[in-house]
Amino acid sequence: xxxxxxxxxxxxxxxxxxxxxxxxxxxxxxxxxxxxxxxxxxxxxxxxxxxxxxxxxxxxxxxxxxxxxxxxxxxxxxxxxxxxxxxxxxxxxxxxxxxxxxxxxxxxxxxxxxxxxxxxxxxxxxxxxxxxxxxxxxxxxxxxxxxxxxxxxxxxxxxxxxxxxxxxxxxxxxxxxxxxxxxxxxxxxxxx
Length: 192
Description:
Blueprint: H1 2-26, H2 42-64, H3 81-100, H4 116-136, E1 145-149, E2 152-155, H5 156-180
Antiparallel strand pairs: 1-2
Helix pairs in contact: 1-2, 1-5, 2-4, 2-5, 3-4, 3-5
């Protein structure tokens, strides 16, 4: 129940950020006689906006973690940093495909034992795939019933919401792992 509530809150925050970003990008001067044009495929456009920040921060976090710390886990019950990266790769490839109604890429399965460079390259490729997939996404298919995971059915819109919440969850976990190793995460670093 706590995880569901946390995921819901992450989605609410992500949607709020998306709405703020879109309104600041599309706001016209107060004296303009033009009206704002409606956004075509607003859910897909919102996901693309969130993807940019998530990609930058998550890949920045993976890059920042020293290679010898990829086997780090805060407690015995938690996953290693490498496991988190492997999960991010699979999640991106699966849920970007589901949200956009495109085939998932055929890629070599990443393993926790893969080195940092290989995992970073695979994570980068998974975000590149998300960019390509979400460019093809259109909101007219959000009502389609699809297999989300493990035989659970849901709408394509639910896949988009899971995607948004997952990006927030994954980055916050990576940021925590960095901080526990004395490393400032990308989103907390001063902007130049």
